[in-house]
Design goal:
Largest sheet: 3 strands, antiparallel
Bound molecules: zinc ion
Low-confidence stretches: 1-14
Mean pLDDT: 89
Radius of gyration: 21 Å
Structural class: alpha+beta
Order of helices and strands: HHEHHHHEEEEHHEEEHEEHEHHHE
Strand content: 5-15%
Helix content: 40-55%
Length: about 350
């Protein structure tokens, strides 16, 4: 079992119930909470989604190598560091392909030979143990490749089908950017850029680099649901979900002394909750949502480099300090804005 923190939306009030986790939860645990020494898990995850959507079940290593190598080669073009180790024969082969020095069939051969060494074994491992759901079985010992499971198929065509591919892409971008920056971990800070609705980081010369869309980066930590009402959202489209400042952005013009664009203050909300009639607009949510925000932020802390470090830098090194930070910010916001808001009952 994974020991990840409790999700925050809809189902979050199950703190003392027996946790009923779903295959979607296990998929997200793999994508969001595993430790990474290379980005191959993300390439494999994206490949699994594509192959399952094509209704494949038995996949030999050559077939798997096609999407896998395409994803790694594409990501190398925007971020040359795809592993924590200094050298990698496999990444060198992908770079040679990108430079036009080797053809695709040779890249496929190199992928079969070098690309899957650890990732097929390690894919399902989260917090030191395999997830309860198996998304593929390894048939390499009997001369095969991998066999995709029904659980994978159901997960990638299920209710969260639109969100899972972008969640994996966003997580990949966050990890590779953190590696590329090469800053001490405690100095990596992810911020929100409202105009582009994207996340940015500052490099060692304080230049801002865009990383990924905020919707894809936050969706997995809210189970693809609205933070306030728990209704499913479509994070793949800007019209399907809003990036909401929990403590309203308008506080900035009132001299509010906190960084409102920090990841700690960003949640995804359905358009009805955020801007519909009776929507939140520039009000602060009632206190119980502050608790949900704290839970959500602790959930982000479970995600390693760079969101963990970002949350610690922005709100405190320990859980009590982070709770006290939120209490302080909330109290100051309440003094300025007075009115609180709750989503209308559904
Ligand atoms: Zn909502």
């Amino acid at each position: 079992m994974t020991d990840r923190p409790i999700p925050t939306t809809g189902r979050s009030r199950r703190r003392f119930d027996a946790p009923e986790t779903t295959p979607e939860d296990h998929w997200r645990a793999i994508v969001l909470f595993g430790r990474n020494v290379a980005s191959y898990k993300f390439a494999l995850g994206k490949s699994l989604i594509e192959l399952a959507v094509e209704a494949k079940t038995e996949v030999n290593l050559e077939e798997l190598a096609i999407p896998f190598s395409r994803h790694v080669a594409e990501h190398l073009q925007s971020a040359d560091k795809q592993a924590t180790s200094a050298t990698s024969r496999y990444l060198d082969a992908c770079r040679a392909f990108n430079r036009g020095e080797i053809p695709q069939d040779q890249l496929i051969d190199r992928t079969v030979e070098l690309g899957f060494t650890n990732v097929i074994d390690a894919f399902h491992i989260v917090n030191g143990a395999p997830t309860p759901t198996t998304f593929f079985t390894d048939e390499r010992r009997s001369g095969g490749g991998i066999r995709l499971t029904d659980a994978l198929l159901q997960t990638v065509i299920g209710g969260q089908a639109v969100n899972l591919p972008m969640e994996i892409e966003s997580r990949w971008r966050l990890v590779e950017t953190a590696w590329e920056l090469n800053l001490p971990k405690h100095l990596v800070s992810v911020q929100y850029e409202p105009e582009a609705q994207g996340l940015v980081v500052e490099d060692s010369r304080q230049r801002r680099r865009s990383v990924t869309g905020a919707r894809g980066a936050l969706s997995g930590y809210q189970d693809g649901a609205c933070f306030y009402c728990g209704g499913a959202v479509d994070a793949s489209m800007a019209v399907g979900v809003d990036v909401d400042h929990f403590l309203p952005w308008s506080l900035g013009s009132l001299g509010f002394p906190y960084n409102l664009d920090g990841v700690w203050n960003l949640v995804l909300a359905c358009p009805t909750c955020n801007r519909g009639e009776g929507g939140k607009s520039a009000r602060i949510p009632t206190l119980r949502y502050l608790e949900s925000l704290h839970d959500r932020n602790e959930y982000l802390i479970g995600s390693h480099h760079p969101l963990r470090e970002t949350l610690m830098l922005q709100t405190g090194l320990t859980e009590p300090l982070r709770a006290s930070f939120l209490r302080g910010a909330y109290a100051d916001a309440a003094r300025l804005l007075i009115h609180t808001w709750e989503p209308p009952p559904q």
